[in-house]
From TrEMBL:
Keyword Glycosyltransferase: yes
Family statement: Belongs to the ATP phosphoribosyltransferase family. Short subfamily.
Record-level GO BP terms: L-histidine biosynthetic process
Protein name per Swiss-Prot or TrEMBL: ATP phosphoribosyltransferase
Subunit structure: Heteromultimer composed of HisG and HisZ subunits.
UniProt cross-references to PROSITE patterns, sorted A to Z: ATP_P_PHORIBOSYLTR (PS01316)
Encoding gene (name): hisG
Gene3D superfamilies: Periplasmic binding protein-like II (3.40.190.10)
Residue ranges constituting the ATP phosphoribosyltransferase catalytic domain according to the UniProt record: 51-201
Keyword Transferase: yes
SUPFAM superfamilies hit by this protein: Periplasmic binding protein-like II (SSF53850)
Amino acid sequence: MLNIALPKGRLGRIVYKQFEQAGFPCPGILEDNRTLVFEYPPAKVRYFWAKPSDVATYVSRGSADIGVAGKDILLEYEPAVYELLDLGIGACRMAVAAPTGFLDDGSRPLRVATKFANIAAGYYASRRRDIDIIRLNGSIEIAPLLGLSDVIVDIVETGKTLKENRLEVIDTLLPISARLIANQAAFQFKYLQIQKIVQQLSLQKKEEHL
Ligand SMILES: Nc1ncnc2c1ncn2[C@@H]1O[C@H](COP(=O)(O)OP(=O)(O)OP(=O)(O)O)[C@@H](O)[C@H]1O
Ligand SMILES: O=P(O)(O)OC[C@H]1O[C@H](OP(=O)(O)OP(=O)(O)O)[C@H](O)[C@@H]1O
């Protein structure tokens, strides 16, 4: 039995469809929004829906053998997991954004609002810029508007949320996409099953690019 942690929310449906096509179906999983654990013995799989930022925790601690997490989460929390494949979905970028026309005069620590405190700290440390991190859990774009922060470090996809809150990207840190991750012990013990899924998912990705 392969235990698979899927991210609830924007990525979940697409990820499950990819796994289904890879030969790991679980009938009914997309029809029921309340049940969180689904088992389908004929395909030797048990899926469960986790909060996207928790998937890596389930995988690193062995409650899931594999799972799907955004590269943002992997960089922020550095869980002890193997990163097996870039699934090419959930594409966005990590960026610094500020109110239009913002100029950092360097006179005091820069107030940075973010969900990604480690990523932001690393970025500004490499620039030798003192910062005051303001940790938020969502709706980051309103922080500068309300005077809580000078800038934000957050995910940008279309740029619509930034625009609506009168912000603009001032630097792009790195591209982000969803990754297939594996528990390190499970990768040894369930090698064949995991390899099968990696191969099938890679094949699908190649076909999509043809
Ligand atoms: N606007 C976006 N466009 C594309 N991908 C995104 C976007 N926002 C987030 N992602 C990617 O999808 C993953 C899941 O994001 P989602 O918004 O579904 O969860 P979340 O609300 O951030 O998670 P949590 O509630 O666990 O903090 C993120 O880790 C990131 O890799
Ligand atoms: O560039 P865009 O296409 O506008 O997308 C970017 C937005 O999407 C994410 O937020 P999410 O929807 O996950 O809500 P959150 O504020 O709760 O994180 C991200 O944190 C940005 O706010």
